[in-house]
Amino acid sequence: QVQLVESGGGLVQAGGSLRLSCAASGRTDSSYAMGWFRQPTGKEREFVAAITRSGGNTYYADSVKGRFTISRDNAKNTVYLQMNSLKPEDTAVYYCAAGLGSGWYLANAATYEYWGQGTQVTVSS
């Protein structure tokens, strides 16, 4: 079992930055790939970014490429999502997830076994 807790969400103006953190506890032997997804109000959950177990490969949705950066610190059992140049359309609840997939399967929510409760990000215009 893995427990995931997101933090770092909040209200920011367009063009600003936020860094989300996802702390893992339980079975945290870095066996899991990690992903970030988001769900705007009234819309389906969508892929944002993912990182492999070693951190050697990362994947991004086209909508965030060049603005968001995913990273992980396995010693701290934490994954991060640095979000720059935020836009109002980035407003959503952001979720981190842990799973055993690889490659672009990590863009599929069904790949993941464990999910956090989410943190709200609101970008004002």
Topology (elements, then pairings):
Elements: E1 2-7, E2 10-13, E3 18-26, E4 33-39, E5 46-51, E6 58-60, E7 68-73, E8 78-83, E9 92-99, E10 112-115, E11 119-124
Parallel strand pairs: 2-11
Antiparallel strand pairs: 1-3, 3-8, 4-5, 4-9, 5-6, 7-8, 9-10, 9-11
Task: Give structural notes.
By secondary structure, this protein is mainly beta. Helix content is 0%, strand content 52%. It has strands at 2-7, 10-13, 18-26, 33-39, 46-51, 58-60, 68-73, 78-83, 92-99, 112-115, 119-124. A hairpin with a 6-residue loop joins strand 4 and strand 5 (46-51). It is globular.
What is the end-to-end distance? 40 Å
> In this structure, how is the largest beta sheet organized?
7 strands, mixed
Q: How would you state the average pLDDT, rounded?
A: 95
Runs in which pLDDT lies below 50 for 5 or more consecutive residues are: none
Kindly name the structural category. mainly beta
What is the number of E strands?
Answer: 11
Total helices: the number is 0
Q: State the order of secondary-structure elements, H for helix, E for strand.
A: EEEEEEEEEEE
Question: Strand content of the residues, in percent?
Answer: over 45%
- What's the helical proportion of residues? under 10%
Shape descriptor reads globular
Cα gyration radius (Å): 13 Å
